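Notebook entry, structure prediction.
Reason for the run: the old model in the group folder had no record of what sequence produced it. Starting over properly, with the input documented here first.
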Amino acid sequence: MSLTLPPRVTERAFERLAEINAGSGSPQALRVAVEGGGCSGFQYEIKLDAPSEQDMVLEGGGQKVVVDQVSLPFLSNAVIDFSEELIGARFVIDNPNATSSCGCGTSFSI
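New structure, fully documented this time:
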């Protein structure tokens, strides 16, 4: 049985979340979830949301990233980052549990 480690959020991801929340009167957490579907079997859902009681809350720089209990095992030891490239800027997940992923970067299989 392998140990489930929480995902890690980079400083860059927390900084971008702070920028997003800076203009908001009520800052929200970044929710990272795993759902069935996508072209590889699972897909990430990343959105602004309010934390719930059952969520794992990861905090940094006054910001919160939340992961629900169902998604947590799929994100064990993953790294949540923010990437700025020519094609656009987005939150990205480096997931060591994914055995393959789709070119879109939001779909994966285990």
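Summary: The chain has one domain: 8-103.
The old model has been moved to the deprecated folder.
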